[in-house]
Design a protein that fits this description.
Keywords: ATP-binding, Ion transport, Nickel, Nickel transport, Nucleotide-binding, Transport. One of its GO terms (molecular function) is ATP binding. This is Nickel import ATP-binding protein NikE. It holds the Pfam family ABC_tran. The protein has about 240 residues and is an alpha/beta fold. Helices cover about 35% and strands about 25% of the residues. The chain has a six-stranded mixed beta sheet, sandwiched between helices. Helix 6 links the parallel strand 7 and strand 8. Helix 3 packs across helix 4 and helix 4 crosses helix 5. The two termini are about 30 Å apart. It binds adenosine-5'-diphosphate (ADP) (2 copies). The site of one adenosine-5'-diphosphate has 12 residues, from strand 2 and helix 1.
């Protein structure tokens, strides 16, 4: 069984009919099917408007598609009981692009990282602090960073904090939604390196959504190309295309 399976997903946005003669429906996703095996990274490459964010939201469970199914460990994420939903949510984390606007500026690194732990684990204060320090160290930061606020970090460091938060519950799958796209080339390379390490160390799986072909190649085991809502091409690491 695949960790994640997306089956014939279709989704359109309907805007208000301003002009009766114009078809106002916008097909954002058309017959999308793919799967992600445990411990692998699937890259989804596409230009702006291709449907990447919509697909990210569909997989994350926050945008129910009009047609099709999303199965996580065999469970239909849009049609399952509360307990399973909670279990899926802890195992499916996300790291967004714009690190500054995705965090609360009044929260310290410690609080940002501890949020998922507070929701899902019953740890003593001492245990929690120890866990957060080891998470910070795991992503290349340190205890000194516990009480700093987002504006005191660089973009790359802040993305490390978002990654620490995402791995804190030992999830199965992380959706990386343009997670390195706003970083400079050098920082991008370092964050990709960290992501690859974490993937190997913990058997993590990624859905790596990006418009950046180089980044996608460097981390993905297989790669899909999304264009105008359709998955038009698919490559595997084994294909020659990858190694060229
Ligand atoms: P990408 O992330 O690849 O840029 P999106 O998933 O954001 O693509 O968008 C796919 C298509 O759906 C685009 O044509 C976009 O204009 C449209 N779209 C996205 N969100 C909405 C929305 N909330 N309402 C209407 N149309 C939308
Ligand atoms: P330590 O043994 O000092 O905690 P590890 O390298 O084993 O160091 O773990 C570092 C951090 O990574 C820990 O805080 C732990 O919560 C987290 N971690 C451990 N296993 C996993 C996993 N399977 N997925 C994601 N994060 C994990």
């Amino acid at each position: 069984m695949s960790l994640l399976e997306v089956r014939e997903v279709n989704h359109s946005y309907h805007s208000k009919k301003l002009f009766k003669w114009k078809d106002q429906s916008n097909r954002a996703l058309i017959d999308i099917s793919f799967s992600i095996e445990e411990g692998t990274c699937l890259g989804l490459l596409g230009t702006s408007g291709a449907g990447k964010s919509t697909l990210g939201k569909v997989v994350l469970g926050i945008q129910r598609p009009q047609q099709g199914q999303v199965l996580f460990q065999g469970y239909n994420i849009y049609n399952t009981d509360k307990h399973t939903q909670r279990n899926i949510r802890r195992n499916l984390q996300v790291v967004f692009q714009d690190s500054y606007s995705s965090v609360n500026p009044h929260m310290t690194a410690e609080r940002i990282i501890s949020e998922p732990l507070d929701n899902y684990e019953k740890l003593t204060l001492n245990e929690k602090r120890k866990t957060i320090i080891s998470l910070l160290e795991r992503v290349g930061l340190s205890e000194k960073d516990l009480n700093k606020y987002p504006h005191q970090f660089s973009g790359g460091q802040l993305q490390r904090i978002n990654i620490a938060r995402a791995i804190s519950l030992k999830p199965k799958l992380i959706i990386l939604d343009e997670s390195v796209s706003s970083l400079d080339m050098v920082t991008q390379r370092l964050i990709l390196e960290l992501l690859r390490e974490l993937k190997d160390d913990f058997g993590l799986s990624y859905l790596f959504i990006t418009h950046n072909i180089k980044a996608a190649f460097s981390i993905s085991d297989s790669l899909g190309v999304l264009e105008k809502g359709e998955l038009i091409e698919f490559y595997d690491r084994k294909d020659q295309f990858f190694s060229s």
